[in-house]
Structure formats: C-alpha cells, structure tokens
Amino acid sequence: MKRRMDKNTPLIAFAGNPNVGKSTLFNAITGMKQHTGNWTGKTVETAKASCRIGGVNCTLVDLPGCYSLEAASPEEENARDFIQSGKAACTVVVCDASCLPRSLSLALQILRHTNRVVICINLIDEAARKGVYPDAAVLEKALGVQVVTTNALRRRGLDRLFCAISGVLSGTFVPTRMPISVDVFSQAEAIARDAVVWDADTVSAKRFKLDRFLTNRFIGTAVMLLLLGLVFYITVTFANYPSELLSRLLFGLLEHIKTLLVSVEVSEGFTSALCDGMLATLFRVVAVMLPPMAIFFPLFTLLEDLGYLPRVAFNLDSAFCRCNACGKQALTMCMGLGCTAVGVTGCRIIETKRERLIAVLTNSFMPCNGKFPTLIAIITTFFVTGSMVDGVFSAVCLVGIMLLAVGSTFLTSKLLSKTILKGDSSSFVLELPPFRRPRVGQVIIRSILDRTVYVLGRAAMVAAPAGLAIWLLANIDIAGASLLAHGVELLNPIGKVLGLDGAILMAFMLALPANELMVPLLMMIYMGSGAMTDSAWQLGQVLADNGWTAVTAVNTILLMLFHSPCTTALLTIKKETGSIRWTAVAFLLPSALGVLLCLLVNLTASLFR
Amino acid sequence: MLIPLSKLLPNHAGTITEVPPNHPRLAGIGFTPGTAIVRLYSAPSGSPTAYLVRGAVVALRTSDADRILVSTEDCP
Question: Which of B5, B22, B41, B58 has the most A C-beta neighbours within 10 Å, making it the best mutation to test the interface with A?
C-alpha cells in the first residue's frame, strides 16, 4: 500500500554515530531494505520513507552517521545541516549501548538545538553480552527527554519507540530542559557513568582475541589472501554454468524473435540490426555479467556485514601510507574487482578528497568482472600446450596479472601523489566495529537484486546502443568494404608499432562501453562477419590464423588491464568527482600506461627477433 | 607522567591530556582531554594501532598518535 509522502507530513529524523544500527532500525520500522553494512560510513545518502506512527502519517529520514555536529566530511555536514535546520518534528538519536559516552556526546549536542528528541539505545543485546546494562530511567532523568532501549535486528522495543515518538509529535510528553555544559564530552561521560551498571572499559583478553589473530603479520595476511582468493575463486568457478544457461536461454529467445519478425515480413536489414546488433549485444552482456556480479558482490557484502573489511584497511594502511594514499583504498580496489563503477562509488569511504581521487583514478587497474573472461580466454586458448600443466599455468598467469594490477596501483598512487595530487598523508582515523553475525539471507537477497537491476540497466542503456552502433559499422559498406574494415585498415600501422594489429585496437575502442565485448568483437572483425557470434571455441584457431604471436597475446593482456575505464565507469567518475577534468585524467592515465607498456614489450621483443 | 600516545605500552591505560587542535574528527570520535584510553593491538607493520576509547575501538596512525599526549602511571 503506497503511503503518501506529503510536504506536510511531520519529518522524523534518525541521527546518531556511524555504525550504531541506525539504518537497521530504519529498515525495521519502514520495511525498506536499505543497504546496511558493518562498516562506518556505509550510509552515504539520506534515505526517506513514509510510515504511520500513532495514527499519523510521517516521513522518516535516515541521516548519515556523524560523530559530532562539528562535521569532518560532506556526509556529516549533510546530517548536521539537517539537524540544525529544525525541519524535523522529532529527532530520534540512536545510541550504541556499549558506547554510551560517545553516543551521548552527540545527543547532548543535538539537545542544544532542540528538545523534541527521543533517545534510542540500540544494540542492547550486544551490550548485555559484554555485561553492560544501561538504565533508561536514570538517563531520562539526566537528559530530560524520553529514552527507550531497542534491539533493531530482532525488532524489539520498536513499539516503545513509536510510543515515545507519538508523545513528542502530539505534545503529550513535555520535555524538561536540562543544562548542557560546554564540555559535552565530560558531561556525557558523567551521565553514562551514572546510568550504566557495569563499566565496558575492561580489557578482557578474550574480547579482542580474534582481532589480534587477524592483525598478526603472518596469520592476518594469510587470512586476507585466503578470503579474497576464495571470493574470487567462487565467483569465477560458479559463474560459468549460469552464464552458459542464460546465454542459451536468451539466444534461444532471440531466434524466436527473429522468426517472428521474418514472418511478419519486416525487412531483413532491420531485423538484423535489431536482433544481431542491438539485442544480441544486450543479451550477451547480461549473460556474461549477471552471474559473476550476482556472486561476487553478495559475498563481498557478507564480509562487510561481518565487520571484517575495516580490519583489511587496518592491516594494509601502512603500505598505502608509503604511497601517500589511504588504507581504505584496499577496499575500493577489492570492489573494483567486481566492477570499476562500484569501486569508484565506494571511494566515498575515503574522507580526504586528495586520497579519494587517487583511489578513483587507479580503480580501473584492478581487472573487473568484465575483463576476466577476456583475460582467461586469451590465456587458456593461446598459451595452451595440451599438457597437464595448463591448469597450473593459467592459475599462475592470473596470479601474475593480479600482482601486476596491484603493483601498478601502488606505483601510480605514489606517482600521482608526487605530481598532480600532491600532498602528505592526512590523519587517518578508523573505527573497528565489533564482529557481528551477518544477516546472510537478507544480505544475499538484497545484493543479488541490486546487482541484477544494475546489470540490466547498464545492458539497456549502454550495451544495446553500442551493439547497434557496432552493427552499423560492420554492415554499412563504402567503397567495397565495411566502415569497420576501413577503420581496422587505418589502425593497422599504429597497431603494429604496439605489437598488436588494427583489429585488436578497433576491438578495444569498440569495447569501451563494455569490456566483456572484447572477444566477440575480435572474432567478428577477424572473421569478417557482420555480427558478433558466440564462437569462442574457435578462438585459438582464429587467433593463430591472424598472425598472433606471444607478443601479441602479452600486449593484448597488458592493454586489457591498462586502458580507459568503460563508459559506465567514466560516467560514474564524472558523477562522483563532479569534474570533467578528472574524468579526462581517468580516461588518459590508464590508456597512456597501457600504450607505454605495449611499446616497451614490443621494443624488447624486437631486439630478440 | 606525560608521554605521547604512541609510546603507551600495549594493554596499558592512560588519560588523554592534549589533543592537536583543529581536528574535528578526533574530538568527535572521542579523543578529548580527560578521556581514558587503552592501547590494544597494532597492525603488522606497527601502524596503525587500535585504541579503546569511550567504549569503541579506534585505529590511529603512529604519526597521529605521536601528537596526542597522555598521562599514565606506568613507565614506558
């Protein structure tokens, strides 16, 4: 049932420190399935939803978490501005029961501006496990407003919360104005001391055992590589079968569409343009991209929900520090393994603009789900010897490629920080939240839905038009050959210099909208056909027939790793940086690196010829 | 005695006395004069280090911990 979000409905704001379960609470109340994660800074946009509380239609607003009203990042500024604007009819300050002094500092700051406030002490179960029991009655007396305890995950205490909010909205609860000192931190600490039955600041060896384990030099690194390798392996292995299935399904559908169009006597040209051009590309992109994305991101989100990811940033920060970048870049790099555009959006967790830009500009160095099929195809078809070591060889190659990608990210980050993005490492403050059991079902379902929508959207907006354009290039003939063939002819000299050929360069240019189109495009150009087909099993033969050498394969792999981000990623970069200039840099930087490496390899090889 | 936070021994506690000014993030997350702080564990390379402050675990780089002063009874 759709509820109206009127301009006149009272606004209820949800404020609080990062990572106190604000979004979980928000979701529990509104039934929205917002993306939450056990990672401070997850909510980056303000979410709105409507809800009926105490018989009144209200609009609920989930503000990004802020540690204090003295904002240190754009997201916190949004939160602060909203609170200070007085737009909210009631502000719910969500606090962490195990972390009351800090949560209450913010509550006190907010109470300076308004006392139409309800204090909601969340994560009450976690606190109980640590032996911490906040007394709501004592807190109510000290703060002068209503205090309720909740466990948002198990939806406990929500009715008390609604009651309290209604009290504020209807005016039946009259808050007492309490004095708030200038030093909110000391006042918060004093209030918390009185209100909490047991002190949480006891360092028990057991509490941080897992953390010490995970940040150990050897075990920590091993766990990190293992987990990442596992996510990666599961994605690559389990995506194959669904991809094939989807492919058969969709292309079967395509045949039916073609038959239908022919039967109603639509022109052959139009049918071909629509089916072999537009729809084939769209279906191909969906079949190739959907399964890996639907596996990789849910797995990654599970790790995020668990709370493991901040530990990764913690472990790797010093390596990034040496490149004048930030440890959180490790996480954006991991996201970039799934999809560069997602990695770029994820760079919001990096607080300093300079370090954020470095992470954005180097994100495309990490091979995304669209590049892997191509890389694997070239390695397995070209470097195949038919012997038993093939599997091992492929694995070694992939590891080598990953090392190259990571190494170049570090080097380029360092280079950028010494040239166009000069600056020293900023202060780095990272909260390590406690490990929480991930809500496996909800995470997986939500993530799969998100990814499906994303892939379909991208296929429709980017791949379909690209498919049509490619079909036109391949089928419009001028002076005896298609536009495509002319283009290849033109690019041949440049190709040769780079140790490649015109066809490969053309394929790269046309694959700008979607990296996964690389192999089909290459096949189409080499075989001179008018449409991309799924004859990847012929790849080895076709490559050999067209004069591929080891150098060609190596350089194609290099260029695959280091070329411009795809159009979706470029658009995302433009949106995140708000600047055409930086988007241009994002386009040129990896391309320049790729060209340079190809030249080097070709030069070196020619010395041995 | 006053020492920089980076010199606090693992699992030892102290009270923050001085924090670099103009740092809204540090204050907001709980690093203010008079706050109790306990050093927990460090990353493999030594930086950053995790501290228990106001009930939460927060990591700081050594370069930042150098600039925060704490008073402690334990000798480094």
Answer: B41
